[in-house]
Amino acid sequence: MITGAQLFVKALKEENVEILFAYPGGQIIDILDELYNDNSINMILPRHEQGLAHAADGYARSSGKPGVCLVTSGPGATNLVTAIATANYDAVPLVCFTGQVVTSLIGKDAFQEADIVDMVKSVTKYAITVRKREDLGAIIKRAFIIAQSGKPGAVLVDIPKDIQQQLGSEEYPSDIQICDTLPNLEQQSKQINKAIQSLQSAKRPLLLAGGGVRIAKAERELSKFVEMTGIPVVTTIMGKGAITSDAPLYYGNVGIHGSFGANSAIEKCDLLLSIGTRFNDRIAGSKENFAKYAKIIHIDIDPSTISKNIQADVPILGDAKAILKILTESAKPLRLSAWIKELDELKSAYPIKIANDKLNPQMIIEQLNTLFDDVIVATDVGQNQLWTTQFLKLNERRRLLTSGGFGTMGFGLPAAIGAKLANPQTPVVAIVGDGGFQMNVQELATAVINGLPIIICLLNNSWLGNVRQWQELYYGKRYQSTCLRRRATCPTQCATMQECPAYVPNFQKLADSYEVKYRRITSKDEIDEAFAFAMQQTDVPTLLEFMIDEEENVYPIILPGKDLSTVKFGKK
Length: 572
Hints:
Blueprint: E1 2-3, H1 4-14, E2 19-22, H2 29-35, E3 42-44, H3 49-63, E4 67-71, H4 75-78, H5 81-89, E5 94-100, H6 116-120, E6 126-129, H7 136-148, E7 154-160, H8 161-165, E8 167-168, H9 189-201, E9 205-209, H10 211-215, H11 219-229, E10 233-235, E11 250-253, H12 260-268, E12 271-275, H13 281-284, E13 295-300, E14 314-317, H14 320-330, H15 337-349, H16 361-371, E15 375-379, H17 383-391, E16 398-401, H18 412-422, E17 428-433, H19 434-439, H20 444-449, E18 455-460, H21 465-474, H22 507-513, E19 517-521, H23 527-535, E20 542-547
Parallel strand pairs: 2-3, 2-4, 4-5, 5-7, 6-7, 9-10, 9-12, 10-11, 12-13, 13-14, 15-16, 15-17, 17-18, 18-20, 19-20
Antiparallel strand pairs: 1-8
Helix pairs in contact: 1-2, 1-7, 3-5, 3-18, 11-14, 12-15, 16-17
């Protein structure tokens, strides 16, 4: 007989959990006490529960293993919610354990009681409170299986304190049957044959790769299919990296900030083979005009996704890797020279380029392309993310972690920490904006105390730049609540960017206080030296503060919810 806390620790070992991201509290002390004398699990103590779960998320995205969290009840649990939703939207296997008040006090407004299970049901694959000690092992096993099966996602297991203390069986099941199984490919054979016939007859086919291709680890299968057929490829932001950025038939990202050539390809194609994407509003824009001349083949492992936003003519339910293998076996080279020539001309005529010759994000990100053959780049959300997805070249060894579906500011730094813990020999770079960076800036301490030489590229334009850009382009430059230098003494209405107060905080002093190495870069001539300095650090993070133009915008941009006719290109 062992306690529930002892069984919990045994379960983590059985699941080969190497790192546990945990923050202490009264309702998990028993579990922490069991972990005290156990050296097989590396305990990471971040500085906030949201940062903790984002770090576990980054660990999972970069390792392929589930990220595992442990926090206490009440505010400890509720602080996880944003990060849980972030992981679940992007199909990341995140396993969260929360402490809970004793079962006899549940529902009686006990100290630090929160019904966390009901709170997260809409943003998890599985959420449950353990009510009986004898169910604990099976529930934990089920959580790990569900998080990683089919379309991965977040799960949460809420464990009351008395369950942790009670004695019970030491058995931990080796397997549990669940309903979340992969689709039967034989049942999809008719639809797959339809897709093959449609591909053979298409004159202007296009392949749209979403994040599902990367989740399925189907990058090589995708490349083989493209090489065999000669079909051109575009990607969503989450799908970028599904095919190497230098591939001759790759034409860039689609969507609101996608390349004009890639979006034009969607508009002009007569067949769209979409794999692993939801066709969300950032991609589809005007749904009435999206790929309006095309037959749409939609492949996805999640049945609720198919035809949810864009009606599919040929729906195929299945794993991206398995379906691509079948398609490749039946594929034949297509005669697409005229179509490819047209797309090449569009790509050449409308390159994505920042016209500003001063220090700008394109220069910074392209330097990363030059310096690192093997790197993991984690971004925050906002302009920094969009520039990164435009200019960062990806392949099997150069990977991108970013919050796509939920668009969570504050993701970049803790995700980079999790990625570095999972990949200690691989350089890790966080690209963040000055707004999002401050949302989880406390995690600098986590990086320092764990000796993680992360390079943080802070693109500082003194604004919440993405919303400021919308205010400039579509709201008459009415800059409400987006200036990060604004103080109570500033004019009520301000449309100027001159003579502003000093920025708070001073990032150099902030870095010094955290014992983080620091460089401030104000001109393009300083980029090389700054990265050289950062790459010399072996056991401490480096903060590189790049002072970019306050009015630098992300182009091209399509008016949200509209079609390509609303595109703006910015300055030439």
